[in-house]
Structure prediction request, 182 residues.
Amino acid sequence: MSGSSGVPAGRGARILAVLLPLVVATSCHASPPPPELALREGDLVFHRSRSAQSQAVALATGSQWTHMGIVWMENAQPWVLEAVQPVKLTRLADWAARGVSGKIVIKRLRAADQLLTPAAVKRLHELGSSWLGRPYDPLLQWDDDRLYCSELVYKLLDRSACRSESSARPRTSTSPAQRCSA
Prediction:
């Protein structure tokens, strides 16, 4: 069964694995990021969650990173938009501290400069704001009524940065690499 984006609902847990090849990585420990690291809108953050479902996510994805979010700048300060119960914005330092040992990985889309234009960042904020307060989706369904972490990030980037402003229809490709190619 396919969801509204054309991605089969059963493949939702693998989105984390799909996103990883699209990004460049940096690793750091909690609070605050090193001064040489200039966080930007749309950077992806990963950590190993302490939640009860963390082990199941690790087994399903084959990754040590079991929770993710997207960097959202407010007054030049980094926040993380994340799908927990409910979808919310969390200060980056607080988000990092919730992970095992405070260790996080920060990744950036390879084509971030081309994809995350001011117009795309505006769309990212508009869509992300509309999702604040939505419930978390423990069943990993591919709809927008409830969201899980990698679904939130995937859909947010796809709908704000990976489609042209004039595109009213979904693209036919289901590969983020193809949709986000510049």
The chain has one domain: 23-162. The longest helix spans residues 118-131.
